[in-house]
Amino acid sequence: MDFYDVAAKRRTVRDFDPHATIDAETIQRIISAGLQAPSNDHLRDWHFVVIRDKSVILKLIEIIPKGISDQDMEALLEDWHLDDPVQQECYRNAVPKQYRMFADASCVVVPLFRQRTDILHPKDLSHLNGFASIWCSIENILLAATAEDYCCTLRIPLGNEEEWTRKVLRFPAEYRFPCIIAIGKKRADAKEIQQKEYSMIERIHYDRWE
């Protein structure tokens, strides 16, 4: 598949076929693309925990709420100042599916990067280099999965989810993870979410912002 076709086809999907599987060779190709991303320290000190065992996935996501009430959903939209109607609809679709999308995925990938400084209290932007480069790796993974005709979604940890994930997966203390990634096949009745329209011409500024 042409690269630009892959980029155009990539979409976040939260409705996975719970019966679909993914083989080890496909996973390795996807992770290999992730390892080819730019690395801040030139060492690619990244590791990836790949989980296909459903019992481990279900243990990992025990901490994720299985749903949200309509009242709590509206309060969340207000607290997060999500005022755009298209944006609101995206969140209304995404938030209630946070548990199920991982439970139904063919596999879950937890990307890990070594972090030697306090990522939540950096002295300057350079202390976030490791965090930034792992996201380059994650984007490669999303695109590679698309090229393999799989779909992805991800969840950034909230509250004590990082501590729980470390306890379940037993990875070293000096490694952090920015998200967990679900990979799977899109369910036939997966809901298509409207995306916010934008103007390409308005987003590109040549030489200076004018």
Report on this structure.
- With 210 residues, the chain is an alpha+beta fold.
- The chain has a single domain (3-203), classed as NADH Oxidase.
- Helix content is 40%, strand content 12%.
- It has helices spanning 3-9, 24-35, 54-60, 70-79, 85-94, 98-103, 129-147, 161-169, 200-203, and strands at 46-51, 107-114, 151-155, 175-176, 180-184.
- The mean pLDDT is 94.
List keywords for this structure.
NADH Oxidase, alpha+beta, five-stranded antiparallel beta sheet, 40% helix, 9 helices, 210 residues
Quickly give the structural class: alpha+beta
Oligomer: single chain
Envelope shape: globular
CATH topology: NADH Oxidase
Integer-rounded radius of gyration: 18 Å
Q: In the CATH classification, which architecture applies? A: 3-Layer(aba) Sandwich
For the biggest sheet, the summary is: 5 strands, antiparallel
The span between the termini is 37 Å
Number of domains: 1
Low-confidence stretches: none
Elements, N to C (H/E): HHEHHHHEHEHEEH
The total strand number stands at 5
Secondary structure: helix percent: 40-55%
CATH classification class: Alpha Beta
| Number of H/I helices | 9
Q: At the fourth CATH level, what is the homologous superfamily? A: NADH Oxidase
Strand percent estimate: 5-15%
Average of pLDDT:
94
